[in-house]
Design a protein that fits this description.
With 147 residues, the protein is an alpha+beta fold. It has three helices and seven strands. It is elongated and about 65 Å long.
Length: 147
């Protein structure tokens, strides 16, 4: 399910911004491992990290505050207890890996603009017909944690 969530975020982001900024034929955001940026500098691949905005999943954490909810449903006088939903916090890193610093800042501004409008995305998995909700919050990291 993680790959579906990441792919969906990338698709929604690109679909939202392409008409606004006039990049009809260009990919604005790709999913990739930004730590490999030095190894892909010389490739001409469309999904290369160089000169692109890159989305990287950097951490996954279980949301413990929502863990204690054990749903019960009454069916024919019997109570059936289901496993609770798994609530996760996904930490996403958006990196602007451009030759020109000003171009990178412009693309990071696009990310902020997108998430200012899209605080929630609803995903539907075709195989299981389940719906998943993605809620987005900006994470503030102090200077001591950046090192």
């Amino acid at each position: 399910m993680l790959h579906i969530a990441i792919e969906n975020i990338v698709t929604e982001f690109n679909n939202y911004l392409k008409p606004l900024v006039g990049f009809d034929d260009k990919i604005i955001l790709i999913a990739g491992d930004i730590s490999r940026h030095e190894k892909q500098e010389d490739t001409n691949d469309q999904n290369a990290i160089q000169n692109n905005l890159v989305l990287t999943l950097v951490n996954i954490e279980e949301e413990n505050t929502l863990k204690n909810n054990l749903p019960q449903v009454e069916e024919n006088g019997r109570f059936i207890q289901y496993q609770p939903n798994l609530h996760l916090n996904l930490y996403l890193l958006f990196s602007a890996n451009f030759d020109r610093y000003s171009e990178g800042l412009k693309h990071i501004s696009y990310v902020l603009q997108f998430f200012q409008i899209h605080k929630k995305l609803i995903l539907e998995e075709p195989a299981s017909k389940q719906r998943f909700f993605l809620y987005f919050n900006l994470l503030n990291i102090g200077f001591e944690q950046l090192n």
